[in-house]
Specification:
Blueprint: H1 3-24, H2 26-33, H3 42-64, H4 66-106, E1 110-113, E2 118-121, E3 143-148, H5 150-153, H6 163-171, E4 174-179, H7 185-194, E5 202-208, H8 225-232, H9 251-258, H10 264-273, H11 276-289, H12 291-303, E6 309-314, H13 325-329, H14 344-355, E7 360-362, H15 383-398
Parallel strand pairs: 3-4, 3-5, 5-6, 6-7
Antiparallel strand pairs: 1-2
Length: 403
């Protein structure tokens, strides 16, 4: 290849490396992929700055030393191709090893301890908090799907107190627990599609009104196990989550969060949301604009159009009682009024469901005072809360099917 052509190649590579810098620096990555618009994990933030600045320096070098690099590249291009392939194989192999390790870990019991609760979660080979699933179904067996997030998973309670186990004891039905912490309606749709051939008799979609509208921008980036592990790194030996030190939280809760005794997601949420009364007042309009969320839910109804499907609206504890506010203010939560937050999202979702002919159940209508249903700090139900939800589902939806 003529030298002028190699010069063009070098300039082209320089432009390509500049683009790599632009799309890998933490400002762009945070804007594109992080639900909060910024990357709060110092490990990932520092790694991306080093990674992107390296490519920026190389891009500048390619533009300043074009001719010298063209001569060098014309003689050594095969070595660079080999190096690129080797690095790709190495990173891909490392990713595969981490995924295999994660799959093995997920099959074992999961131990969870916070200031609110302590429990061991038994999970199956698919990572669900249930026994192994079978497509075959015995004669006269009624099979129910519970699809949702950590509320279906049973965060905060023992294995015997999860919604699926309580409902199985009440009804004698076979109840599949198809929920995992952190899931959103994209995951609900995917699991509904994956289990379509398991012959359910009823599907219940448990939608948590506080955060199930969120479709994280980070979902693509965090599909990689390497990135997930980087998120867990901390360069501060005294704190597992160094970012909490900058939050408006009492020192005692900062220390507990650093030790992992408080769900750091709660502190992140308090730091991002601002006044929770305003946040909940806006959720109704947020649902109006959440076309993808609406589409995901509607598609699940369409997938199971031959059986009963119900959208179960799970309230937050802020909608049940202001009695929870005092302790949460210590974690940086802002409640401008000592009264329950708005239920505008339930109203909007029920109007949407009516318009589309979809069945729903609003648990808020059956909650009463609700002061005994949630943990003091954590947003999840305690055992009394799960029992209340199970009894509400049984009385309103399942009782007519019990023989």
């Amino acid at each position: 290849m003529p030298r002028t052509d190699w010069c063009r190649v070098v300039r082209f590579l320089g432009v390509g490396l500049l683009l790599v810098f632009l799309v890998t620096n933490p400002v762009f990555v945070g804007w594109m992929f992080s639900s909060g618009g910024v990357i709060r994990n110092p490990a990932i933030n520092n790694f991306l700055w080093l990674f992107s600045l390296f490519f920026l320096c190389v891009a500048v070098l390619f533009q300043l030393k074009t001719r010298a690099l063209a001569r060098h590249l014309s003689k050594n291009w095969a070595n660079y191709i080999l190096m690129l392939v080797s690095v790709t194989v190495l990173v891909g192999g490392f990713e595969l090893i981490l995924r295999c390790q994660t799959a093995i870990i997920r099959r074992g019991p999961v131990y969870v301890k916070t200031v609110d609760f302590e429990y061991v979660a038994n999970v199956n080979s698919l990572g669900f908090r249930d026994g192994e699933f079978s497509k075959s179904k015995e004669h006269n067996t009624t099979r129910i799907f519970l699809i949702g997030d950590s509320f279906v998973y049973g965060a905060g309670v023992d294995n015997t107190q999860t919604l699926d186990k309580l409902l199985e004891n009440m009804t004698g039905f076979e109840v599949f627990s198809l929920g995992k912490p952190g899931w959103n309606t994209e995951d609900y749709f995917r699991v509904a599609e994956a289990f379509r051939d398991y012959d359910p008799d009823m599907v219940l979609i448990l939608f948590y009104v506080d955060n199930d509208l969120v479709l994280p921008k980070s979902s693509f980036l965090y599909n990689f196990e390497i990135v997930k592990r980087l998120r867990e790194l901390s360069f501060d030996p005294t704190c597992k989550y160094p970012r909490v030190k900058t939050y408006n939280v009492t020192e005692s809760y900062k220390e507990m969060a650093c030790r992992g005794e408080v769900n750091v997601g709660l502190l992140d949420k308090a730091n991002q949301v601002g006044d929770f009364h305003i946040y909940y007042e806006n959720l109704g309009n947020d649902f109006k604009e959440a076309r993808q969320v609406q589409s995901n839910l509607k598609t699940i109804f369409d997938l199971y159009s031959d059986i009963p499907v119900t959208l179960v609206l799970v309230p937050s504890k802020y909608q049940l009682s202001p009695g929870y506010f005092e302790e949460l203010r210590e974690l940086g939560f802002v409640f401008s009024r000592n009264e329950k937050v708005s239920h505008a999202i339930q109203d909007e979702m029920k109007a949407w469901a009516d318009l589309n002919g979809l069945s729903y159940l609003d648990l808020l209508e059956y909650a009463g005072s609700g002061e005994e249903y949630f943990h003091a700090i954590d947003d999840h139900f305690n055992e009394a809360g799960n029992l209340w939800v199970s009894e509400s589902l049984f009385e309103t939806l399942l009782k007519p099917f019990v023989g």
